[in-house]
Amino acid sequence: MTTNGDAASFGPNAPGYEWKSTAEVDPVEVSPGITVQPLWRGANGAKAAITTIAAGAVWAGEDLHDPGPEEVYVVSGVFNDGVNDYAAGTFLHAPAGSWHVPQSAEGCVLFLFYPEG
């Protein structure tokens, strides 16, 4: 493959290319038994994080998706949104203005992405 320009400006060396190990980020407890590890924040407010919900933990109140949607990927365990269970490997899109009550009977790890902050 041929590219135009300096090879350092493409791929993993491109400006803005970032990476972070979860081992580098201390978990922050946001609700009893629920921790968040922020991984990335974009200039427009977009952000990505790992959330861990301990077995039996329930978010205190409704988790409102504002100002934008929430994208959830269940990495391990079983996530419950207050109504339905979602096993590892499930992707959820929660539109802006929607809400749920995050919880897990057995515990779970989630990858969260907020495209609009």
TrEMBL record:
Transmembrane segments: none
InterPro entries to which the protein is assigned, alphabetical: ChrR-like_cupin_dom, RmlC-like_jellyroll, RmlC_Cupin_sf
SUPFAM superfamilies: RmlC-like cupins
Superkingdom, natural source: Bacteria
Sequence ranges assigned to domain ChrR-like cupin in this UniProt record: 22-113
Stated name of the protein: Anti-sigma factor
Source species taxonomy: Bacteria, Bacillati, Actinomycetota, Actinomycetes, Mycobacteriales
